[in-house]
Design a protein that fits this description.
458 residues; mainly alpha; Alpha-Beta Plaits; 2 domains; two-stranded antiparallel ribbon; 2 strands; transmembrane; metal-binding; 4Fe-4S
Length: 458
């Protein structure tokens, strides 16, 4: 395991093996094949090319992951991350960021249905999925089904890569498997099946305030009406209980990791497709100050918008009825689209994989407040064994300078920590440990806890 401090600017990057080049070429060909699909007027030919492209991407990615990580001993090896153009904000990273950002811009603002089943630049890609969409959802594909398919495939393929890379850690194997399961089952297949049975497309793995409109009056009315008396009520009950009861309880016992690193689709994409970029998160104090300013502002804003919508819907303040809808649309545009999508994913190769989770997600802010002030979760450290290698800080995607805590033997209790466990896995000395211990010992270092335990035993 290497860190930025151990690399020099002129250190050679190992030559890529022939088989690795071949497998990566398959991925590149698959991505390139998507371009003619978008402009092919022949729907049947475009469909075959589309699924051929997905097959090439899948085979290349899975084969590359098996070869790359299967031919080296178990353990975390992040060699040459700061020397490769793809993982150190080089030309490849910039091109990747521009392509991702461009895709989100086209998806959000240039691919709306024109009423005749046409989806702009993505039209052929969208309709290539019609057979699959009809089989799953009993309706033709649309731009959001295309996006959901790409999103889920990215988590599954890059999740397989993570399983190979972190196969030495049972924690990461189970955690990655959980993210793949919830994305495929609860965020892709189940909503589609609900549509097939003419029920609302409901995502059971997303809650308010992340899925902010689930507690908006219009959404509540829609779910109760179209969901039926039983299912609609259950959906509302599920949202309310998870948001206001289960979330505080689970966060008290396990920290925010139960959701951000085990369930959430945003976290799922960050932990799988975004794993190559985790070292890019800014660890400066300035970045932390902006993080606090922005994320809690977003949380306060969605609480305010939700409250105003309900007050307006009640008719108690008639003047609000003309303000609340534009306000909710503005929030959806600025936060739900630009921040979480265009910036949150498009900037992966430049700012790290948790830009949205760190700076903008209201759910992360909500969970973080509970974790910092009330939870039993913390990461204990043993400063006596820390060798200051910096591996822990290098892999922290939330911008926490873990090494500073480890050197002092202080427990890490931060609102932003998602409990991914990468700092512990990357540590060569076993200095860091994720724990859900008693709150009375929460702010004590591992050495003090060990001393207390010896005193009690004696």
């Amino acid at each position: 395991m290497t860190s930025p401090q151990t690399l020099t600017a002129d250190a050679p990057v190992p030559e890529v093996a022939g088989l690795e080049k071949l497998l990566l070429t398959l991925v590149a060909l698959g991505l390139l094949l998507l371009l003619p699909v978008a402009f092919d007027a022949d729907a049947e030919r475009a469909r075959w090319c589309f699924f051929g492209a997905l097959a090439l991407i899948s085979a290349g990615t899975l084969g590359w992951a098996a070869w790359k990580y299967g031919h080296q001993p178990e353990g975390v090896y992040n060699h040459n991350l700061w020397l490769r153009a793809s993982t150190s904000r080089g030309a490849v990273a910039w091109i990747t960021g521009i392509v991702l950002t461009g895709f989100y811009v086209i998806l959000y603002w240039f691919s709306s249905d024109n009423g005749q089943g046409s989806y702009g630049p993505l039209n052929q890609l969208v309709h290539a999925l019609d057979p699959f969409s009809k089989a799953l959802r009993n309706k033709p594909s649309d731009q959001w089904f295309l996006y959901g398919t790409f999103y889920t495939l990215a988590i599954l393929l890059m999740g397989a890569r993570a399983l190979w890379k972190y196969r030495s850690s049972p924690y990461h194997l189970i955690r990655t498997g959980s993210l793949m399961f919830f994305q495929l089952g609860f965020a892709f297949l189940l909503p589609g099946l609900l549509l097939a049975f003419q029920r609302p497309e409901f995502y059971f793995s997303y809650f308010w305030p992340l899925k902010y409109d689930y507690l908006f009056p219009d959404t509540v009315g829609y779910l109760l009406k179209d969901g039926g008396p039983a299912l609609g009520v259950f959906m509302m009950f599920w949202t309310a209980v998870i948001s206001f009861v289960a979330t505080p309880v689970l966060t008290y016992f396990f920290g925010k990791r139960w959701y951000c690193s085990w369930v959430c689709g945003c976290g799922g994409l960050a932990e799988t497709a975004g794993d190559p970029y985790r070292q890019l998160s800014d660890k400066s104090r300035t970045a932390w100050r902006w993080e606090v300013r922005i994320i809690y502002t977003v949380l306060g804003l969605i609480i305010l918008v939700t409250a105003l919508l309900w007050v307006g819907a009640s008719g108690a303040v008639p003047a609000l009825q003309g303000i609340t809808q534009p306000l909710s649309k503005a929030y959806g545009f600025a936060i739900g689209s630009v921040f979480s999508g265009v910036i949150g994913v498009g900037f992966y190769p430049l700012m790290g994989a948790r830009v949205w989770c760190r700076f903008g997600c209201p759910m992360a802010a909500y969970l973080g407040l509970i974790q910092k002030h009330f939870s039993r979760f913390r990461i204990t450290t043993n400063g006596a064994q820390c060798i200051s290698c910096g591996n822990c800080s290098n892999v922290c995607e939330m911008g926490i300078d873990v090494k500073q805590y480890a050197q002092r033997g202080e427990p890490i209790i931060r609102a932003s920590c998602v409990g991914c466990g990468m700092c512990s896995t990357a540590c060569p000395r076993g200095v860091l440990n994720l724990e859900n211990g008693p709150r009375e010992n929460r702010y004590q270092g591992s050495q003090l806890i060990h001393a207390d335990s010896l005193r009690i035993l004696s």
